[in-house]
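2024-03-11 09:14:02 INFO worker-7 job=invfold-0412 stage=load source=structure_tokens
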């Protein structure tokens, strides 16, 4: 998306989603990441945002899709674009990362080599999001292409359907991230609804929205500090409600931040590569004997955010690396002088 068309509030939300995601993976799930135990303030923070992190990422994807949604008879081009943007990095980044995790020493997650090689089909790491969103794009894109989403009523019916699927038990076999797709679908559709009604939301809830999100965040922090088991079930009516309300509250707030907007421009690279840099930070600091939780978290988050930005800047300079590792379109010619500082295109974002 060009700078003239870029929505600063959406880029800000993108940056916030990146920050929440990287913070979570630095702290890690229980027994992972920095192996921070229950009772630590960082553990409470990580657990409290379970209803917001990935729903917000997906809400933004749905919002932006609604701007550039498929029109006419160009489904083949739409399909090809999503394969390039999502599936190519899944093979070129996701599978190698999983293999590296399987054979590398000192990793927290025990991954078999065969599982790593098959991770393009059965999700292993955070790359499940690529598979899940690809399914969602294909499903919603087909409906749009066939003219089945041309009214607000049909869009709301799609949300009702997605909410019902969300509340069903997950499939026993998570082929190609289908469980992730059914989990994320209502938030994607909510993003579409948000884009269609963005002006009204900002007008009516610009003041109330931030207050609602702060109240939700404080409530989740309090509950997580009491008993994390009360909020770790993502696939629940409470999870669906809190996730959607939080996303709408953030959208209506019209929040803008230069720092978060800058991060938002690199959101896809941050998503793809943050774990690599966060794990490297953890390993290096561990070898240096640094054990302070605050220092480990701060350095991990800084590396997890800034490392992918640097890597993206390098990869974007060359067609070969930008296509394979970032899913970008191949340009006619790329030189150091004409590379965009914000390589993540909204039209192709995940």
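2024-03-11 09:14:09 INFO worker-7 stage=emit residues=350
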């Amino acid at each position: 998306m060009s700078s003239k068309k870029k929505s600063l509030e959406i880029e800000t939300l993108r940056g916030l989603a990146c920050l929440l995601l990287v913070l979570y993976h630095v702290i890690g799930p229980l027994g992972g990441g920095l192996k921070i135990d229950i009772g630590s303030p960082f553990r409470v923070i990580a657990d409290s945002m379970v209803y917001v992190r990935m729903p917000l990422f997906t809400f933004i994807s749905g919002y932006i899709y609604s701007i550039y949604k498929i029109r006419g008879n160009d489904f083949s081009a739409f399909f090809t674009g999503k394969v390039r943007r999502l599936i190519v990095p899944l093979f070129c980044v996701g599978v190698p990362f999983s293999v590296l995790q399987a054979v590398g020493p000192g990793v927290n997650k025990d991954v078999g080599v065969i599982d790593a090689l098959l991770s393009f089909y059965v999700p292993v790491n955070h790359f499940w999001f690529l598979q899940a969103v690809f399914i969602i794009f294909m499903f919603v894109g087909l409906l749009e292409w066939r003219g089945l989403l041309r009214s607000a009523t049909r869009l709301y019916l799609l949300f009702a359907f997605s909410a019902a699927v969300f509340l069903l038990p997950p499939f026993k076999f998570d082929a190609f991230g289908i469980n992730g797709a059914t989990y994320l679908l209502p938030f994607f559709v909510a993003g579409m609804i948000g884009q269609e009604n963005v002006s009204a939301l900002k007008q009516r809830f610009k003041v109330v929205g931030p207050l609602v999100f702060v109240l939700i965040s404080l409530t989740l922090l309090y509950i997580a500090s009491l008993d994390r088991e009360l909020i770790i079930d993502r696939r629940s009516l409470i999870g669906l409600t809190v996730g959607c309300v939080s996303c709408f509250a953030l959208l209506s707030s019209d929040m803008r931040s230069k720092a978060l907007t800058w991060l938002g421009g690199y959101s896809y690279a941050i998503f793809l590569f943050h774990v690599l840099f966060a794990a490297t930070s953890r390993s290096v600091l561990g070898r240096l004997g640094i054990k302070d939780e605050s220092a480990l978290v701060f350095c991990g988050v800084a590396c997890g955010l800034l490392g992918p930005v640097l890597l993206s800047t390098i990869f974007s300079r060359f067609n070969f690396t930008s296509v394979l590792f970032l899913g970008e379109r191949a340009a006619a010619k790329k030189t150091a002088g004409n590379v965009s500082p914000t390589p993540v295109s909204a039209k192709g974002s995940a």
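2024-03-11 09:14:09 INFO worker-7 stage=report msg="The chain is about 65% helix and 0% strand."
2024-03-11 09:14:10 INFO worker-7 job finished
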